[in-house]
Amino acid sequence: MKVTVDFEECLKDSPRFRAALEDVEGDVTELEVKLDKLVKLCIGMIDAGKAFCAANKQFMNGIRDLAQYSNNDDVIETSLTKFSDSLQEMINYHTILFDQAQRSIKTQLQTFVKEDLRKFKDAKKQFDKVSEEKENALAKNAQAQKTKQHEVEEATNILTATRKCFRHIALDYVLQINVLQSKRRSEILKSMLSFMYAHLAFFHQGYDLFSELEPYMKELGAQLDQLVVDAVKEKREMEHKHSTIQQKDFSSDDANLEYNVGAANGVVMEGYLFKRASNAFKTWNRKKPDHNRRWFSIQNNQLVYQKKFKDNPTVVVEDLRLCTVKHCEDIERRFCFEVVSPTKSCILQADSEKLRQAWIKAVQASIATAYREKGSETEKTDRKSSSSTGSVESGSEVKEKLVQGESALQRVQCIAGNSSCCDCGLADPRWASINLGITLCIECSGIHRSLGVHFSKVRSLTLDTWEPELLKLMCELGNDVINGIYEAKVQRMGVKKPQHGSQRQEKEAYIKAKYVERKFVDRDSKPSCSSAQKTTVISQSKEENRLSGSEKSPKLEEHGKIPSQSSVKSNDSGIQYSFDGSQEVLASTMSANSLYEPGHLAPKGEKRDSSVFHDAKRVPPGLQLYHAAYEKNLPDMAEALAHGADVNWVNCEDNKATPLIQAVLGQGSLVACEFLLQNGANVNHRDVQGRGPLHHATVLGHTGQVCLFLKRGADQHATDDKGKDPLSIAVEAANADIVTLLRLARMNEEMRESEGPYGQPGDETYQDIFRDFSQMASNNPEILNRFQQSESQKF
């Protein structure tokens, strides 16, 4: 370390020492000014950036409004939607950049100024004070007279003590100076390096985003060139038509007939006519003649009129075969004719005699045509072939033991089917959908991103940082498992799966049909045999309306509800049905009418009794997800979601628990919880006891799940019906790990709420400790098994 001020010169208190001090103090003062200025400029930059992001977001919303307005034009709507989504991503990247600037420049340099420079100033004050005391002692010692021995001794003692104190304080001051000069370099470079890395990540993300968008932009550019050519051609045609029409003579009625008579879209003739009122007075409206004028048309063997184009047509004559038309000369108005039907007559007035003759001929021609046509229409029958039901065979899952130290790409691609894109088959995919558990190529990942995060959450296997529980989740599923669910009916339906060389539009249509519309999911497949299918099935005879066997269920008889074949509906609350001839009724698995007693609070390892169950045709998707979460069966969970299960399905007959709570109470699976959370599970839903997933994980001592729920935004202040929050439960159970996590999370929350400059160190500590706990929970869970399960029984 380079020494700015020499310690030896400090003891001598030489002029060189004083000069060096003066230079250092001036330099520190200037440094403080420069750092304060830099921090203020950073604050101004961040404020301007936030204003830019806000304005950019308004601009992006304007593009989305324009896209919605242009919903009748697929090209404009699709393009503007894609562009607005990309701009939204860039706004998010900008927000991250400004947040990192605040952390690296503003917070870090402010901390250096307020802490290290403040210590320097305090040391300088003490040094200046002791220096002044030393000078006074020297002066007093010099002024002591030889004749006064006691004054000489007193002055000598004071000088000796003062010099000793000066040396200590001067040495401390010099040490503070040298440490500050050394630290300033690392602090400034550290903050600036972090700031530059934030810029690197920002431009990298932007480059990746627009690299995905570039093929579409090139394709759109080609379409735009063709649109320009078409527009020029259409312009020439319209100019020619304009000049042709302009040369026509509009003075005669023949020209008007050319516009009013046509045969397009079944319209025989149309145009404006005056209509006499059909009330008792049979009068014309003289004060407002335009109220008599209507747009009449002859179409589909009917005479109808409209006042405005958007109005529904008013039918004057239902069937022209039952009416007649004749001139009307016995009224004062000219050019009138009458349409007479068996129930009423309608007097109409044209604008000229030729128009009247044209209308009369058109009505007569329509009457003749209606008589020639056959009145009966051929009925069309839609034949719908029902596909045979078959169970989705997922096969044995290949779960290789992964070597520590491998990258996320290597680990994920080891899973069956993950070495090629899940949707187009391109080899070596570098992207993944974390909520689906599949790998994707860059083009398919861009299409997935356009679906929205509620369908697919896309992440890079090489550029993004992967949390251990997410990486473990990806290794539990894989392309083969998911395609076995979402492409179960592709071959039966004769759908051709796109390849990596297919057009982007073809891939987009296929991916949307696969994941959004779920057209290829075999909804009639029989669920796999697990506790998710342990459901009470009561068969009822058609003729005798009795349960198969000897007696009806006493619990069903007690309520007097044995539903018929047509009355039983399927829903996610646990009621199911079947449409076969045996009229089977699938009752609620955990309702009062069921023979199955709830057992999700049973100790681990205790199997639920299945002797009372019969074979089930179907299981409600919500119930399948509920039980699969209990058993950590991720393929079954994915299948239930594909069949339309609500990830927050509530079992009203089992303490209002959700699949996420079941994942805690069952196998205690960290991966099952992460899968549900990534698919939108509510981490703060509470059961009838007022306990959410965080409560149950704390009671059972599942440290990894507690860590996961805290990271995913669980409310640790929520109390159950006994008034206990998770922290109080962990303290009573003396679970040191969970108490540490909860207290650290609470402290971090308080730091975030305060706007002081000292929140960042606590935030870094929080992130480091939670990262360590996540690693242990995912890779070495046995380290966290220090909490005895028996301790939870007292709760």
Automatic annotation (TrEMBL):
Membrane topology classification: Peripheral membrane protein
Comp. bias regions, Basic and acidic residues: 374-385, 552-561
Single GO cellular component term: endosome membrane
InterPro entries named among the record's database cross-references: ACAP1/2/3-like (IPR045258), AH/BAR_dom_sf (IPR027267), Ankyrin_rpt (IPR002110), Ankyrin_rpt-contain_sf (IPR036770), ARFGAP/RecO (IPR037278), ArfGAP_dom (IPR001164), ArfGAP_dom_sf (IPR038508), BAR_dom (IPR004148)
Annotated Arf-GAP domain residues: 406-528
Top-rank taxon: Eukaryota
Coiled-coil annotated spans: 120-154
Name under which the protein is recorded: Arf-GAP with coiled-coil, ANK repeat and PH domain-containing protein
Organism of derivation: Microcaecilia unicolor
